[in-house]
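ok so heres the complex, two chains, lmk if somethin looks off
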Amino acid sequence: MNTTIMLFLVQDGITNGAIYALLGLALVLVFAVTRVILIPQGEFVTYGALTYASLAAGQMPGTAKLALALGIGAFAFDLFVARKALHARLIARSLITNIVLPAIVLALTLYFAAQKPPVVVCIALSLVIVAMIGLYLYRIAFQPLAHTSVLVLLIASVGVHLALQGLGLLFFGAEGQRGPAVLSGAFTAGALRFTGQSITVYAITIAFIVGLWLFFGLTLYGKALRATAVNRLGARLAGIRTTLSGQIAFLLASVIGALSGILIVPITTLYYDSGFLIGLKGFVAAIIGGLVSYPLTAVAALVVGIVEAFSSFYASNYKEVIVFMLLIPVLLLRSLAAPAVEEEKD
Amino acid sequence: MQSRLPILIFAALMAAVPFVPGMPPFWIVLLDNIGLAALVAMGLVLLTGVGGLTSFGQAAFVGFGAYTTAVLSTAYGLSPWLTLPLSLLVSGSLAVLLGLITVRLSGHYLPLGTLAWGLGLFYLFSKLEFLGRNDGISAIPPLSIGAFKMLSPGSIYYAIWVAVILSALLTMNLLDSRTGRAIRALRRGHIAAEAFGVHTPRAKLLVFIHAAVLAGLSGWLYAHLQRAVNPTPFGAQAGIEYLFIAVVGGAGYVWGGVLGAAIVVVLKEVLQSYLPLILPGSGQVETIVFGIMLVALLQLAPGGLWPWLMSFFPERTDGRKPDTSLKLEHRARAPAETGVLLQVEKARKQFGGVVAVNNVSFEVQAREIVALIGPNGAGKSTTFNLITGVLSATSGSISVLGRKVDNAPPQEIVKLGISRTFQHVKLVPDMTVLENVAIGAHLRGHSGPVSSMLRLDRADEAKLLAEAARQIERVGLTEQMHQLAGSLSLGQQRIVEIARALCVDPMLLLLDEPAAGLRHMEKQRLAALLRELRDGGMSVLLVEHDMGFVMNLADRIVVLDFGTKIAEGTPATIKTNPEVIKAYLGVAA
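and the predicted structre for the whole thing:
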């Protein structure tokens, strides 16, 4: 084996693995707080990536309109739930977060899209748009189901995934897109070439892992989220608004998804339906991490990325088979070490 | 068991459908597809809705069934009828392999694990040379009987629906049996079921295989309907779709699977053919609408449509009382169940640094009621769990009839004639009292899953239910026999647990706070029952906080405090023991 090739593969694997780590973290976060297995995570990735690429190419992304439409839906849900006790403050607050905000963003997007905005503006707009979509989706699709079983939430998650994927085709067409590099330039160290893009990927992944760790360890909101994850009822009795926890989790997940998308779209061409598979590899990492541990998930994601890079080099036909079958030995180990705890379900 | 009449009517209706004059051939195609999906969904109902094991991988088993017959009937020219058992065998044996890994996964690893191998297998289908890679295999021969070839959707229609209705009957038979009760108890955790001898991993594997074989059957039919297979219908998307067919229909109900299949197949068809007329233009509008409708449906009816539909019909409860004159064989006994039944010697249990049970020793003699008392957190329930094998002791030993049983699993302990109730009631709330109690007699029945499906278990089953009914009568809950266990008051549920424990035909009964939640009269009745049991030769070890109840009932009392035994003796000596008074009331007393 050639050392240069090996180093290249490892580098490639780590770059992809970093993205899977971000997605794995988001999945663990959402699952822990809301019990939703977030299949649409992949759509957050493609929406972020393609919104960014469209904006950079001077096109108007349909996602900005979707955000407003979902916002209107969320507002309607808010009004309907509060119909017996409507008061002005509540309406005003819901109106601002659900309608005024996306309307302003839509206006900004319309304004900027016409004049090929700088990369920073594209990134900011894409992140905000996808973040709002994530937030409103939670309000519309998942909050009314918060009390149901994991299975029902999962199926709802599939429904959302299907709808978003269909909308993705509508907004971005069947053609794949690439976006401009977030950070251009490159340098070489020995045989390896580091692009500004890959450095950005590493930096942001590490920043997020540290950021999440600080958020959950030190802030009150972070602790509230953890409390919700451990025991919903207990958290509510302690005065934590579990709805708010769910919203924060979805907000974080959609931002992380969109960011991952923006980071990879300069490296790989993305299609409207690419997100599903990318998200699933984040899943693989999350499962290996046991859906609870952030550091383990990050390490597992790197392993997934490296295994994928090597298998696409040596057995490209069986790349996906190998990545998904990687789970079987892990699951076996987990099975053997399965704790004999009683699971109270439903 | 529900009456068979509605199923007969349904079968007759389905048989008549192709003869309706003017029936568009396309509707028959739809019905074929519904039948194929219903078979898979039915397996998922058993696996997911009843057994609590969520699987995304069922499409892969459909693929195993379809590819087996495709390869064997094209490359080797085998008759499709010959490949049927082989298709089922392949699906079933691969289910054993995957199941051995999968069913041991706890909680949420399980659905994700199935998703992972479902995806892996899909890619394998599309890459393997002998399965035709992405193009798949075509020119599969049709099913034929003599010279009659089932070439049209209308002719294979009967094969599909005979398979659906037979599978539904077999599945319902399975659920209404000794094995079925074990399966239905799975979703509520394994401790209670295992305490009565159910081997839960085996029961899980069984439903896994059942679901895989149904999926394989669907795949076999699919291959001969389409007469070509390719990997697409066996991917992760399909696996997810089968799951939501089951959920939409009502994941806990066999017919929910059929209803769900009908709804999803028809809905998709309607959306595909009519939506472009309303919203012309781009491709995937039906996917969007489909996704949205799915979420809306779940919000309106999270339990699925079948139970919602059934709520419009008057509830038919099977109110027949089992024939209690039937005698059930006794538990296989040791030659003499006399003398010291249970001996606990220096039993110790540590959880990390916490010593929950600290070198506790005591014994229970034959025909004796012993009470284990102590303040909250004294280690009483932990001691119970050590005795019954739920927890393994850190050190010390536990013997039954002089034989050491250290760290034996719960299933072995109950075979020795030790049965128990739980401090936190562990009944299956959506099963009737009778069915819950019958789980207690699990080890005294013999019928396996196959004989249950074929209804060869009826004699055995009648005896089990008779025993359950007798024990329910004994504890005075005959009125509630056919009610759902979840609808009873907490006190009554505790009594149901006692009846379930009595069904073991035990020599020693372990009761964890049996009197909690009972009214005064009920407590007196319970005390009378326990005395009667003792006089009949049974021993009782109970944990209880109600001192009046304990002092009037127990022959001997063992007092624990912070995991340590502080006193033992007759009620009279315990009442005056200064250590005990100190533990309960503090020093000042």
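quick notes: The first strand of chain B starts at residue 137 and ends at 138. thats all i got rn
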